[in-house]
Amino acid sequence: EETCKACTDVCEDTTGRFHVGNVLRDCLWLSLRPHMQERHCKPDQEAFLTCPETCNACDLPPSFTPVPSPSPLEATFCDDDKFGSFYVHDLDKLEKCVWLAARPDRIDSLCAENSGSDARNICPETCGVCKDECTDSSNKFTIEGKIRDCLWL
Predict the structure, then answer these.
(1) Are 149 and 140 within 8 A, CB to CB?
(2) Contact by Cβ (8 Å): 84, 56
(3) pLDDT tens digits for 100-126?
């Protein structure tokens, strides 16, 4: 429901548009393209101010200067790092939080404090280190003829 906007928090994308090259795009376009967020969700980019929810910009102080984060249990927002990766020892590779969320049988071992994977810090919501009041539903929907769920978004 968080992904699909069935519930809201104080952070919302605007209805404005931003430039990608010579083309004007909106926040929905950016939210459906995580690979583009890394490039466009930086403080010096138009999308950063136009799409604060998509860019996770609401968690940053107004000056955009780095500050120590509160512990996940004290955090106002509980979100996994969309761009962060953690090490999976048995696969000998880095994975993202969406990979872990799709494999609930691996959460306990990879999120353990002594796992050495750093998943607990990169994916606090998936690991259950913190909670927010808004969650995705398990409902399915169709996009371009394919059945999808909120995890796909």
Answers:
(1) yes
(2) no
(3) 989 999 999 999 999 888 999 999 989
